[in-house]
């Protein structure tokens, strides 16, 4: 067992997880998250982002590896202890809103606070504050079935923020929103996190969303990868390769992608100017 760094509120070491069919979801992922940091976990669909968030939050146990929260080992906790941890210290936003149909909007947003023992009045006040900040305060007494999908997702975000969690896990939180709404909701989410000292781990496949974070960790096929910028390619080495890779076609930029001993994908720049920037994804 490896001792986690003192300055990380959440720390994971060598996480491994397999799906029920035996396919790997995580293969040795390690990371640390500082208190108050907004960390984006980026990667294409199927890269392991959701599984990583589920392991970090205690929703599932990694099959191998360690997860620590404030120097407490989450990976050794029983299911009830992990459930209390999620209730009292963590918040979660799903890609699709999951609300209690029998409760109205403000009751859904206030539910985590009331489960913690907060009085109904105080829970309602906190819930209404966040609903207003997310421009849905006028729908506070509606039931979920009376809302549009985008409105229900705003309620889910308010529900996650109202208890002021220590760590907020957001799995593609703006997926159901219209493009015009995404920037405003993300600004509200990140501004609230910074002003309240909430640590956010944000899973996304969108570069614009990841750009709002303090730092980005990239996943590919269940592994962490780093992007390394290579120096410009010398023209004499590529003068005869103007986009004529196997299969033909013309490349718009020079790029190399390498990972775990796999092959590379290369395309040369158009025209006589063969200089360009290349990126190489390396497993770490």
What would your notes on this structure say?
The chain has 284 residues and is an alpha/beta fold. It has 2 domains: 8-223, P-loop containing nucleotide triphosphate hydrolases (Rossmann fold); 231-284, no CATH class. It has helices at residues 49-56, 79-89, 105-115, 120-133, 149-161, 179-196, 207-210, 235-238, and strands spanning 8-18, 24-34, 38-42, 64-69, 72-73, 90-93, 167-171, 199-204, 215-220, 223-230, 278-283. The protein has a 7-stranded mixed β-sheet, sandwiched between helices. The protein has a 4-stranded antiparallel β-sheet with strand order 2-1-4-5, covered by helices on one side. α3 packs across α4 (120-133) and α3 (105-115) runs parallel beside α5. The chain is globular, with a radius of gyration of 22 Å.
In short:
29% of the residues lie in helices and 25% in strands.
CATH top level assignment of the largest domain: Alpha Beta
Distance between the termini: 20 Å
Strand portion, in percent? 15-25%
| Largest sheet: spatial strand order | 6-7-8-3-9-10-11
SSE topology sketch:
Blueprint: E1 8-18, E2 24-34, E3 38-42, H1 49-56, E4 64-69, E5 72-73, H2 79-89, E6 90-93, H3 105-115, H4 120-133, H5 149-161, E7 167-171, H6 179-196, E8 199-204, H7 207-210, E9 215-220, E10 223-230, H8 235-238, E11 278-283
Parallel strand pairs: 3-8, 3-9, 6-7, 7-8
Antiparallel strand pairs: 1-2, 1-4, 4-5, 9-10, 10-11
Describe this protein with a few key phrases.
11 strands, 8 helices, 7-stranded mixed sheet, Rossmann fold, alpha/beta, 2 domains, 4-stranded antiparallel sheet, disordered C terminus, 284 residues, single chain
